[in-house]
Every structure is written in C-alpha cells, then in structure tokens.
Specification:
Layout lengths: L1 E4 L3 E8 L13 E7 L1 H11 L4 E7 L3 H12 L7 E3 L5 E8 L4 E6 L11 H8 L3 E4 L5 H13 L4 E3 L9 H6 L2 E2 L3 H8 L4 H8 L5 E5 L5 E5 L4 E4 L12 H14 L4 H15 L12 H8 L1
Parallel strand pairs: 1-4, 1-8, 2-6, 4-5, 8-9, 9-10, 10-11
Antiparallel strand pairs: 2-3, 6-7, 11-12, 12-13
The structure holds adenosine-5'-triphosphate.
The site of adenosine-5'-triphosphate has 22 residues, from α8 and α9.
Length: 294
C-alpha cells in the first residue's frame, strides 16, 4: 500500500494557441475542469499503475470538493483520510498552449489547513510501503508526515514542487527526491543536471531529476548513476508528467523492482501521459504501461 499525504485541487484548464502576456486578453479554444493537485495526481497515478493507495489530505465543502472525492474514489483510491473542511477546495488555474507547454497558478484553499498528519494518518503511513509527498501543503505538515514515515522506516519520495527552500528536518527524512530540472537548480543553486544531482546527493540518499523529453537522471549516494531516455512521442499536454512518473516509480519500487527497471516503468507511464490531455485524465493504467513496455 502507498500513502500520499498531499494536495487535491480542481484544475481549471484553458486551452489556447499562445498563453497571454501581462495585460493581454486572448480567446481560448476550450475549457475543462479536471481533478488534479500534485497529491491527488500522484495518488491516481499510483492507483492506476496497480497498487492500493490511501490519500491523506483535505478538500473544501464546495462542489469541487465533492468532485475531487468522487474522482479519487473512482480511480480506486482509499479516501477515508480525505477530510472535508469549511471553505473552498484548492484550485489550479492552468493555461495549456498549442505546443503542449503549460503555466499554472495554484490557490491552496483547503490544502492550506493540512498542517500535519492526524492519528489515523500516522497509522496509515506506518502501514505503507512508501509515502509520497509534494510541497502544495503547509511545510510543517509535509515535515511531520515525512518524520512519521521515517520513524516507521517507510521510504519517502518527495516531489519538491512548487520549489521552495527545504528545511533540514525534511531532507533528513526523505529517501528519494524527484525534482524536475528547474526545481533541482532552484534547490541546489547549481545549474546543469549532473552537477545538481551531485549537490542533491549531499543532502539525500537518492535523487531522480526528470528532464522532460530528455528523460531522467538517477543517482544514489552509493555512487550508482543511471540515465533513462524518454520515449519519442508527440506530447499534447505535459501537465502531471512528473506526477505520473513519481507515482509509477514508487509502485515499481514497492513491488521490489530494481531501480533501472523501475525507472523504465516510470518513464513509460509518463510518456503515455503526455500524449493525452489533463492531469488525472491522462494517466495510464497498469495494462497500458505493461503493453507499452513490451
Ligand atoms: P509537469 O510539471 O508538467 O508535471 P515535470 O516538469 O514535473 O512535469 P518533466 O521533467 O517535464 O516533469 O517530465 C517528467 C517525465 O515525463 C520525464 O522524465 C519523462 O520521462 C516524461 N516526459 C515528459 N515530457 C515528455 C515528452 N515530451 N516525451 C516523452 N516523455 C516525456
């Protein structure tokens, strides 16, 4: 079982030829609401990739909250740890351009109330094969969840997004950090993935830097280094490619696969997701991942 202690947002997605500049108004082609948030995305990605997943977090008492709960439930995610709090659910305002690039504004809403794991959350974390964390919740909550996992020797995967300074207590409890290239540079102050990887490994045991269509770079303190290419596909929307990658990586590792095989599994899942629109709507099932791998 994998636990995800994280955010749930309703993604409000506008599709447009080119994202507007400041002060500019442009007409989009289309608009959709899609359940998202890095936490919910990773929970759905992991559930589709074939494990039991418990989602620990909060939604508001608005219509978006009910829709988010329903979407997680439909994906097979256990939502007993999803609290409802007064006020708005988290939202992400996303602009997707015709090249498949995106820009995003997140308003935390209910996610901002998740300042630490409850007693039930701690019990779920302790029973898990892995805990997945991101940075769309208050930092104190993320740190407390990571430390709860560390006490129970549960591996902790951290997606350090949106990028912000990482306290030592958090890094000390993280097993595997999975930034994209920009986040890796922001955290380490070092540019270039190889150098950023070295800098990250001074702080955590393992790191995977995702490099978009250039694949991903893995390193461990033991000195092991691996590079996994991305499949050559036509990307239509890269939203949640990173979340799909980390969800699938944690599943493969929890099943006992070696890192090289787990990285191939994750990269295959992420390449499938970029070929479809949206966040949760784009994530492949286990069957699709296995088919693409063979
Ligand atoms: P996002 O914020 O859009 O969710 P990200 O910036 O966190 O994504 P990326 O590094 O862009 O993460 O992508 C994560 C992984 O997804 C990559 O390591 C790669 O395996 C896969 N991927 C991303 N873009 C492409 C692409 N154009 N073609 C194939 N695979 C891709």
């Amino acid at each position: 079982m994998i636990s995800v202690f994280g955010s749930a947002n309703m993604d409000l997605v506008a599709y447009v030829a080119q994202a507007p500049e400041r002060g500019e108004t442009v007409t989009g082609h289309r608009f959709r609401t899609i359940p998202g948030g890095k936490g919910a995305n990773q929970a759905i990605a992991a559930a589709r990739a074939g494990v039991q997943v418990a989602f620990l977090g909060a939604v508001g008492d608005d219509g978006f909250g009910a829709e988010l709960r329903a979407a997680l439930t439909e994906a097979g995610v256990d939502v007993r740890g999803l609290r409802q709090v007064p006020g708005s659910s988290g939202i992400a305002h996303i602009v997707v351009d015709d090249d498949g690039g995106n820009s995003i504004i997140v308003v935390p809403g209910a996610n901002g109330t998740v300042t630490g794991p409850s007693g039930e959350d701690m019990a779920a974390i302790a029973r898990s094969d892995a805990l997945l964390l991101q940075l769309e919740l208050p930092m104190e909550g993320v740190v407390a969840a990571a430390q709860a996992a560390q006490v129970s020797r549960v591996p902790v995967y951290l997606t350090p997004a949106p990028a912000r300074p990482l306290p030592h207590e958090l890094l000390g409890a993280v097993t595997t950090i999975v930034p994209n290239e920009h986040e890796a540079a922001a955290i380490t102050g070092v540019s270039g993935p190889e150098a950023a990887l070295d800098a990250l490994l001074e702080q955590v045991q393992e790191a995977v830097i995702t490099l978009g269509s250039d694949g991903a770079l893995y390193g461990a303190r033991s000195g092991e280094r691996l590079r996994v290419p991305a499949a050559a596909v036509k990307a239509v929307d890269t939203t949640a490619a990173g979340d799909t990658f980390v969800g699938a990586l944690a599943v493969a590792r929890a099943e006992g696969r070696g890192m090289a095989e787990a990285l191939r599994f994750a990269s295959t899942a992420a390449a499938l997701s970029v070929q479809r629109e949206g966040a949760s709507t784009s994530m492949p099932t286990r069957h699709e991942i296995e088919n693409a791998l063979s």
